[in-house]
Amino acid sequence: MTRSPASRPLSRRALLGGAAALGAAAATGGLSGCGSPASLSADPSELVLWYWNRAVTPELLAQAAEHIPGSPGRRVRGDLIGAGFDTKLRTSLAGDAYIPNITLINSNCALYFPNESLFLDFSELGAAQYRDLYYPWKLKLGTTPSGRLCFWPLDTGPTGFYYRADLFDKAGLPSAPDKVSAAIRTWDQWIELGRELRANGGPAMVNSAAVVFGQFINASPERYFDEQDRPIFAAEGSAVRRAWDTAVKAVDAGITGNQQTATGQNSAWVTGATAGHIEAVWWAEILGDTAPKTKGLWRIADQPVAPGNSGGSFVAIPRSCKDPEAAFNFTTWLTSPANQAVAFNKIQLFPSSPASFERGGLRADATFFGSQNMLRFFSDAARRVPSTFVSTYESQVEAFAAELANVESGGKAPEQAWEDAVAQVNRVLKKRGVI
Amino acid sequence: MTLSLTTQPAGRTAGTGAVARGPRRPLRSFWPQYLAVAPFYLLFLIFGLFPIGFSIYLSFTDWDGIGKIKFVGLAQYQYLISDPRFWNAVGNTLVIWLLATVPMLFLALVLAFLLHQNIRFKSAYRVAYFLPNVTSMVAMAIVFGSVFSDSFGLVNSALTALGVNEVPWLSSNWGIKITIAVMVIWRWTGYNAIIYLAGLQAIPTELYESARVDGAGNWHIFSKLTVPLLRPVILFTVITSTIGGLSLFTEPQVLLGNNGGTDEAGMTIVLYQYNQAFTQFDFGYGSAIAWALFIIALVFAVINWRLVRERSTDSSSQRRLWTATTRKGITR
Q1: Which chain A residues are Cβ-neighbours of B143 within 8 angstroms?
Q2: Which chain A residue lies closest to B12 (C-alpha atoms)?
Q3: Measured between alpha carbons, how far is A262 from B152 in angstroms, rounded to an integer?
Q4: Mean pLDDT across A256-261
Q5: ipTM
Q6: Chain segment B12-43, per-residue pLDDT in tens
Q7: Could you read off the pLDDT of A201-223 as tens digits, one per residue?
Q8: What is the crossing angle of helices B122-134 and B84-116, to 10°?
Q9: Is the pLDDT of residue A126 over 80?
Q10: Chain B: residue nearest A398 by CA?
Q11: Which of residues 133-172 of B touch A (CB under 8 A)?
Q12: Which residues of chain A lie closer than 8 angstroms to B145, CB-CB?
């Protein structure tokens, strides 16, 4: 071909050259990432915020896009990040390129504790004057073991026992929230109530044993590890062991529904095959979407022993932030009691500041819960959530929930399942160099 | 255009001349061709080869995705060999692959054979059988989750209506495996049937006609003529199904979540790799699992290759198959 007459090969050559140039351009385009700036935006007055859907009130974001209160001439550009938020954030942090100036981090902020140096400490930015505004247990969750406040309280998830009042009525049980709360002060009482519900032809209390196990631990001041990341779950009488025994007891009493998949769980709430759930305040919204026809039939009672915290996100400022002061101003403005009230009214983010309730003006649609004041319920619960430490290694303990499911749906002997779970978690922790 | 047509032969001979002298200075004489394929290879180098090489390196390290990369030598592989969860995943993958592939290819073959007959609405059937292959697997996993739901599913409702006990499809070891296999069958049967159909259409009609003249029924034609003649095509589908089966991920992930359901019965190798790398942020171990999967796939590739090589020897005698073996079978 190289020696063919001039006219045609020339044009082909041009074509080939063009294709090669395109390829080279694409290749250099890909490579240019290597020498890229750490920030996502070249505009010095524009700070980039990463968030996920329904995590920041659109109205507040629009205001910050004009200017950040307290930092004239600075604006926030919100980038909506879809699924795999952590993977994307970690990728940009690992590559030290295209890092947002401000980012939200979900309730799993402990995952970032080993790399806390990648984030700024809010205490050093002037957090002292705002600290008293927030629930102490929430501040504690955002503080690393070395005492740096790297994760700022955004919203919280105080828990309660959601239940179907009509199904309780039908089974001849007390159905008013205060009566139910009084009847289930301890987990044994809660299991006993579930047993009565079953005995009178009622459905299961919750979908699965994992609900009991998880929320028992969420309401406990002690979890899987101590603050030096030493595992404490295998010790005699540990919180994890007590949560396990309580969950197994609930299985034995036949009051868990063995709904192990999400579709099964949704069906159970829609059909009334499960009469309740123990979950945080944000679950009300999900329930309303999942089972709209059960509107007005649900109530909320106190979780046995004490309420816990489930979920709730944080704001963090990566080390590479171009203007930490403006980022801090944005964060404290976004999470001020007044704006948290706005966030609750608009997108049902539950405040991390008790002052939001004291100001008044919070509105909650109570029709789903038969005019029960869920706002007052959860603001009371939020005050009683115990302070606790979440270790970065809690992502390694999934074996407990998995083995509990084996007990519930596979009929595995509980003691064997416990030993298997401990053995597996220990194996993983040994591999990761924790023990 | 006409001008270039007349010059074409000359160009071609010049080209073949270049091929003959090629080995001496290949890069210089073939630069347009190299240039033409360069965009793909450059992109492959950056987005394909580099990650592959990096994952080899990662499999010898301990890395959480952000912090320091710590070199640990063969420790990840040592852990892998003694990791019961990994071997459980290997076992699950192979069992689900067998449960899915055998009925799927048989069904596809039967479907293709039936579609090859003179029936009405042929195209409509072809589209209908191929449709599952282009639907979103994520959406379908949710539908299957409802259909096979333990206490609310259609399947269990049907079973109770028939007076049979409910089966815990999504919370028992075999139930989970069968449900995933059914999803795979549902999705890929039509795809394979279309491939078989193409193979069938390449078989000369005289063979069928002579078989009919000899009085062969549908079953005999199918088992004694169609299947032996389609052997190369069948081997091709076995290979593609093996690759698909070994990399099974979406179905169990959407259906059961990142932990593979009760007793990890739906935990496949790729799901375990995803679980370790992207939910536990253990990229070193995730890479080691990926390379273990590569070795397993290599073993299967060798097995497939040997099967193909053995069969290819009798491809020349395939035409004689019918007269030699089958006629005997029918007249008996």
Answers
A1: none
A2: A1
A3: 12
A4: 92
A5: 0.84
A6: 444 444 444 445 566 778 888 889 999 999 99
A7: 999 999 999 999 999 999 999 99
A8: 170
A9: yes
A10: B259
A11: 142, 145-146, 149-152, 168, 170-172
A12: 261-264
CB contact under 8 A, A19 and B43: no
Last residue of a domain, one of B48, B74, B100: B74
Q: Structure tokens of A380?
A: 């009371």
| Cβ contact, residue pair A261, B255, below 8 Å | yes
How, if at all, do strands A314-316 and A298-301 pair? Answer: unpaired
Q: Are both B123 and B50 inside the same structural domain? A: no
Interface of A with B in 255-294 (CB under 8 A): 257-264, 267-268, 271, 273
| The pair of three-digit structure tokens given for residue A46, joined into one six-digit string | 């524009």
The partner residue sitting opposite A23, judged by closest CB among B3, B42, B67, is: B42
Residue B237 lies in a domain: yes
Indicate whether B330 pLDDT > 70: no
| Per-residue DSSP letter, A314 | E
Domain CATH for B134:
1.10.3720.10
For every residue of A363-374, DSSP letters joined together read ----GGGTT--H
Same domain membership, residue B83 and residue B68: no
- Contact list in A for residue B32 (CB cut-off 8 A) is 1-2, 12-13, 16
What's the distance, CA B281 to chain centroid? 29
Tokens of B162: 């028939």
A261–B170 C-beta distance less than 8 A:
yes
Nearest CA distance, A263 vs chain B (angstrom): 6
Q: Does A402 touch chain B (CB under 8 A)?
A: yes
The rounded distance, in Å, linking the Cα atoms of B206 and B184 is: 36
Q: Are A241 and A415 in contact (CB under 8 A)?
A: no
User: Averaging pLDDT over each range in A326-330, B110-114, B209-213, which range is the top one?
Assistant: A326-330
- A185 touches B at CB < 8 Å: no
Count, residues in chain B? 332
User: B188 and B130 in one domain?
Assistant: yes
Residues counted in chain A: 435
Burial class, A271, CB count within 10 angstroms (exposed 0-12 / middle 13-18 / buried 19+): middle
Distance (Å, whole) CA B168 – CA A69:
57
- Other Cβ atoms within 10 Å of B13 Cβ, number: 11
Domain end call among B74, B89, B123: B74
pLDDT number for residue A249 = 98
Domains of chain A: 12-156+312-363 (3.40.190.10), 159-308+369-431 (3.40.190.10)
Structural domain includes residue B276: yes
Quick one: pLDDT band at residue B141, thresholds 50, 70, 90?
confident
Q: Tokens at residue B207, please?
A: 């063979």
Are A285 and A364 within 8 A, CB to CB?
no
Please indicate, yes or no, whether residues B150 and B64 belong to a single structural domain of this protein: no
Is residue B49 domain-resident?
Answer: yes
Mutate to test the interface with B, among A261, A424, A427 (most CBs of B within 10 A): A261
| Residue ranges making up the domain that contains B51 | 33-74
Domain count, chain B: 2
Residues 25-44 of B with CB under 8 A from A: 29, 31-32, 35-36, 38-40, 42-43
- Check A118 against B66: CB less than 8 A apart: yes
Residues B230, B164, single domain; the answer is yes
> Is the same domain home to B253 and B170?
yes
B98 lies in the same domain as B125: yes
Partners of residue B168 in chain A, C-beta under 8 Å: 409
Name the B residues in 170-229 with CB < 8 Å from any A CB: 170-173
Q: Is residue B210 part of a domain?
A: yes
**Same domain flag for B160 and B291:** yes
Q: Whole-prediction pTM value?
A: 0.85
Contact B167, B175 (CB under 8 A): yes
Tell me whether residue A192 is exposed, middle or buried, using C-beta atoms within 10 angstroms of its C-beta: 0 to 12, 13 to 18, 19 or more.
middle
**Three-state DSSP class for A68?**
strand
